[in-house]
What we know:
The protein has 745 residues and is an alpha/beta fold.
Amino acid sequence: LPLLEKTDRALLSNQRLLTGCHSGKLLEVPISPSTGDEWLVRTVQQIDTDISVDYLDGNTIPISSIIKAITTEHESLRSLQSSVAQPPPQGGSEWVSELSSILKTASLPVPISGISSRLRVMAPKDALGCNSDIAILANTSAPSWNLRSPKIPFIGEMERHKFELLRPDVPITRARHHLYHILNCCSKVILIDPSLDKSTPLAPPLEEILDYCTPPVHFDPNSEENLGPRDIKQLDGILLRNMKNSSNPPLNPSAITIPLDVELQRDRERRQPSKADSEGYLPTEYRNRVISFDYDDLTRKTPEGVDNPRNSTRWPVIGATSSDGKNSVTIDPRPFTPLPSGSVVSDSRHGHSDGATQEIQLWSPSRLQEWAKCPRRGWLSRGLRIRDEETQSEDLDPRIHGDLLHQIHHDLICEVLGMEEQVERDISGVLDGHFPTNLADSDLEEQEVMQKALEILDKLAPWLERSDGVSTFRLRMLTGMSHSEWKDWLANPVKAPLGGRIGAMIRSEMQLSDSMPVALEWEISNGSETGSEISLNQNETSPNQIELPPIMINGKIDRVDIIPFDNEGNEWLDDSGSNEIAPLRLFETNDWKPRRRVIIRDLKTSEKKPSDRNKEGLLNELQLAIYSRAWEINHPGDLVVGAGISTIGHSTEHLVEPSGNHRSELESLSVGTTTSLTSRLHRFPDESANPKSDPFRAWMAQRLSVALGVAHGAVEGRVHPTPSKSACRYCPVSSICAVKMEDDY
Ligand code: SF4
């Protein structure tokens, strides 16, 4: 209101205009600011600068800076007017023209990126609302401008048309809209038409406007006078490759060596030392020259005549090839710190430049895992949040399938055992006999449990009722039922025979008769916003026993069980146990004993062999050790005596790597299939070839040491690539990584 002229304001203030014709009630309107300055303050306060910043591209000045520049300018004008006793305008056109002049002349700050170029590179949809002097339409071929509607799993063409979902003509009408905006946003538009080359036809919306364009300028690659910019660049490239002067200097001289990156990287990999010394492992002095490894190296058998790593004269060891061609096992050597090659240009592209330091207050196991796989991958995908566009498959996303099985598992346990996700179970209700200890103790028959699981499935995935191929396949996979059997069961939900992945899950669950679930999806920060602190003493970090900064971490443990102290399952708690946090180096204390004994389980949906998935979880991934230690830290008196992967898939099995000190007890209880991976591999780095420690706790320290080392490398900005087939296979940024390692097909 204050921006209007006095007469307009008087008119709009007329109460008759605000009184309802029928109700006779006065329309409630906000109280109008009385002056233009008050209006400006209120308007600025309503702008959500935090949300707006998410939409900026990094080169644009943030809204908050623009507001600041305008308000500062406005305030100085007011103070100038007051110093010369000039009354400022209160509103109306005088006030508006004063503000307009401030908006036109206020000097804006330089963007944070330091880039203040007038050239902007944008996708057509991002150009909406912009105007410019000239627009250049480049990369205009049909394959570059995707005009296909995305696919939706479970929905066929008929259903899409019927429900008007993702109509196939929507992308093209949108593209036309974007294009017409560009054509009208400037006085001159230059279209770079690639259709001279038959393999790159022009995108359809551009094809439609060709008739309205002025006659094109043609370049002829065969004529010396009329070469196009592309031909000139190509010729210059050939000259530079042949070490001759080009007609124009390259725009970015450093970029000339980019094609050599991959050769340089492969050469460095080939030059990695690989010969074993007399003890069967890589000589210690070569450790710093190792820049990659493959996960198979972590699980190799120890060749005959070579001591297991735990009993080797040095620890940790890196596997190597002996003279008779046998490979020894490696203790996870990450993080790698490749030395610079000496070529400043190449090194600056490979993590040896400043500017990539990270400030990560809160880590999660999955973020650490990305950085551990390859620091470049971690930096690009988690630090800069870059990732390849995911293509939507017509089948169910494997992650949704995994989440579904996870949820069925959790809901089933919660329902039968009276538990709640993310809430720690009060075991007194179990000890009193009010709740069953576990599924096996629930007095339910397997078929009754299957009935409950199917009811949960129906609630979580009502789409399984559909008869399309994906639903039919997934239904069979999950329950072993055909579509008509499922329909029959839904009409009459009764006990059902165990079948499919859900049946296998129940069968394996029924075998855990000595294990009491106490938490599902338990948050390891235990309610703290800053997370749980994970740290190690200097003598526990490997390989060099150096001090590594602690990290704060959050995440959710899939499942935590406790096990009894006796074979009959009567004693779950030892009241005489300690109230202190379990020491990692338990072998050095005699006065600490556990109040409860805990197993940490990580649920994975996988079609791999459960034993292979378990090896990967224990020896390659980091979450099991982090979860184990975080649970102990948050539960003084609890001792984690086993950890492992519970694989839900075609073969469903709960695997547990037991603590060395409790192996025989765990083997005599029904708590899952015990494995033996750490006993030959792990010890603490300051122990001799005759170690006294529990290998399981030494494993925990080694995995935590890798986690702390990886986090420290990220904080210091070490973002070099460490390509390997397994790391590059599903890398979300592989399309922009020149040194990726191709998989065998
Ligand atoms: S492709 Fe390989 S080397 Fe490149 S970032 Fe991904 S994991 Fe690292």
